[in-house]
């Protein structure tokens, strides 16, 4: 079941999928896999309020370096252009 019957951006059809999201807090990055509604036409991702709260909590922890409970996932790099 989807949160939105249609995409609020373009009116396209949405499907519920597992999606990976990259979050940044300070210099740290984390990836999290969450359920989102994804528009089949424009690719817009729609998250429910609980998921958005989760993103905020993760960002705050990244920002505070409070990452002990997170699983290390290689190294992140910045490539100067
Ligand atoms: Zn759309």
Describe this structure as you would to a colleague.
The protein has 81 residues and is of the alpha+beta class. It has a domain at 14-63. It has one helix at 49-63; strands at 14-25, 28-39, 45-46. The protein has a three-stranded antiparallel β-sheet with strand order 1-2-3. β1 (14-25) and β2 form a beta hairpin. It is elongated and about 40 Å long. Bound molecules: zinc ion (ZN).
Helicity range: 10-25%
Average pLDDT metric: 94
Strand-pairing-aware structural class: alpha+beta
Biggest sheet layout:
3 strands, antiparallel
Radius of gyration: 15 Å
Report how far the terminal alpha carbons are from each other. 43 Å
Bound molecules: zinc ion
Order of helices and strands, N to C? EEEH
Strand residue content? 25-35%
Shape: elongated
Q: What is the count of helical runs?
A: 1
Strand order of the largest sheet: 1-2-3
The beta-strand count equals: 3
Low-confidence stretches: none
In short:
The chain is built from 1 helix and 3 strands; from the N terminus they run E-E-E-H.
Give the key terms.
19% helix; 81 residues; 32% strand; alpha+beta; binds zinc ion
What's the helix and strand layout?
Elements: E1 14-25, E2 28-39, E3 45-46, H1 49-63
Antiparallel strand pairs: 1-2, 2-3
The protein binds zinc ion (ZN).
